[in-house]
Amino acid sequence: QKEVEQNSGPLSVPEGAIASLNCTYSDRGSQSFFWYRQYSGKSPELIMFIYSNGDKEDGRFTAQLNKASQYVSLLIRDSQPSDSATYLCAVKYAGNQFYFGTGTSLTVIP
Amino acid sequence: SAVISQKPSRDICQRGTSLTIQCQVDSQVTMMFWYRQQPGQSLTLIATANQGSEATYESGFVIDKFPISRPNLTFSTLTVSNMSPEDSSIYLCSARDKAQETQYFGPGTRLLVL
Question: How confident is the model at residue A1, as a pLDDT?
Answer without folding.
Answer: 60
